[in-house]
Amino acid sequence: MKGKLLLIALLLLVNAGYAQTGDNAKLDQFFDRLAEKNKAMGSLTIAKEGQAVYTRAVGYSQISATEKKPLTGTNRFRIASITKMFTAAMIMQLVEEGKLRLADTLSKFFPQIPNAAKITIVQILGHRSGIPNVKRVGDRQGNISSKDPITKDEMLALITKSEPDFEPGTRHLYSNAGYFLLGLLLEKLTGKSYEEALQQRICSKIGLKDTYTATGNIDVAKNESLTYMSLGGEWKQMPETHPSILFGAGQIISTPNDLVKFVQALFDGKIVSKESLELMKTMREGEGLGMEPFTFAGKTFYGHTGGGDNYGAWLAYLPEEKLAIAYTTNAKVYPVANIMSGIVDIYYHQPFVIPGFETIAVSPEVLDKYVGVYSTPGAPVKFTISRKDTTLYIQPGEQSAAPLEAVSENKFEVAPGVAFEFDADKKTMTQKRGGLERVFTKIKDFKQ
Q1: What sign results for the dihedral spanned by CA atoms 262, 249, 228, 384?
Q2: Beta strand pairing call for 411-415 and 402-406
């Protein structure tokens, strides 16, 4: 009997360990496949109770004609909207210090904003303010673009001139401009720059050594990762949105290692109080205060996502298991949501088939049937389909041509979830994206 009890105890221990230990070999296989097929470049950290249990980096931080510099766990990435978690946490600190109330209206700080007397701080935090996202309009030569810097006063003027999307508190709509204002508010109430406040209030407090705000273009001298797009198996560097446009909504640079430390400290009560954290993670229409919920493997995680210019990041935390997952990428190809879902399924030993990412070979004779110029009423540009060797290329208007990957003899993908299906007899090309379809008709035929 004693021996039987000992055996049961050992089995329970083994099973408990199995349930909480990820399949690192399979995670390696998954990321090997993503790298092999040019479906991702990025860096991952999985941490439990503050300790890393798996790290992996695939792809390159810098690509030139003569060199490809591999990504490592020390490379820094633009984390885009995960910045909002940091901004929200610092706003909650100001509330705890009595320098601000969640019920305060925007009129107390920026009375020139439309509806300022109706908009509360908590509504901005939860994207329920009605403050619209604003964009600069360039001249006919396109001399103003997202690559150009903007001053805080210029952005504030744009927000002031904009029409509200809805009456405050009546609905939810994601607003980067709202978090731009929260960044300004943080500076106004602390008397410090956003960067100084970030370092004092979060980074130095919990030991984040690779987290700071971007001030200009990606700097490889600081171990920052350039952003790329995969075109026909080749990586092409992408242009960069100037970080001054993003500010408190998306200006931070970090690493997966720092991100898991941040979210663990946040949930451990080292950045804000437990009461403030509860407010941040209380969801309304799928949105908390600088925080979002995610469901992976039937479990509810909390965190945030971020993306822009083909870079991105995802931070997710499971409180009951103190499990943190941070993935940063400088080249989005295979959807980041699918990568995160695969990571969690593998970690919990759920059924997960590593994608093959296989394409098929289509003969040049068949491909030539699809070559031509296509248009549809209401579309701003015509699409030119051309062939080079055994690959079809699609070119919208005067933009660069991108390769299409064949998934069947008449169906091709330019990116996951964006497909083009050809009917040579009807001379049509159907674009399929996000459940929507648009039919283009060939208006010009030509031979390769």
Answers
A1: positive
A2: antiparallel
Closest CA to 298 of 352, 355, 344, 353: 344
Token pair, residue 142, equals 């396109």
Sheet arrangement for strand 212-213? 77-78, 252-254, 212-213
For 297-321, what is each residue's pLDDT tens digit?
999 999 999 998 899 999 999 999 9
> From CA 165, how far away is CA 106, in angstroms rounded?
16
Enumerate residues 6+ apart whose C-beta is below 8 A from 52.
Answer: 45, 46, 257, 260
Closest CA to 23 of 51, 50, 56, 1: 56
- The amino acid at residue 113 is I
Give all domains of the chain, ordered by start, each with its CATH number: 77-347 (3.40.710.10), 364-444 (2.40.128.50)
- In this structure, the strands spanning 436-444 and 372-375 are antiparallel
Predicted confidence (pLDDT) per residue in 182-205, tens digit: 999 999 999 999 999 999 999 999
DSSP state of 176: H
Instruction: Say what the pTM is.
Output: 0.84
> How far is residue 55's CA from residue 327's CA, in Å, rounded to a whole number?
10
H or E segment at 279?
Answer: helix 274-280
DSSP letters for 379-442? -SS-EEEEEETTEEEEEETTSPPEEEEESSSSEEEEETTEEEEEETTTTEEEEEETTEEEEEEE
Longest CA–CA separation in the chain, Å? 86
Cβ contacts of 85 within 8 Å, gap of 6 or more: 262, 263, 266, 290, 291, 303, 304, 315
Q: Extract the tokens encoding 441.
A: 């008709």
Instruction: Tell me how far apart the alpha carbons of residues 41 and 334 are, in angstroms, rounded to a whole number.
Output: 10
Q: Give residues with Cβ within 8 angstroms of 318, minimum separation 6.
A: 299, 300, 301, 324
Beta strands 391-396 and 383-388: pairing type?
Answer: antiparallel
* pLDDT bracket for residue 5 (50, 70, 90): very low
CA dihedral 253, 257, 261, 262 (to 10 degrees): 20
What is the chain's Cα-based Rg?
A: 24
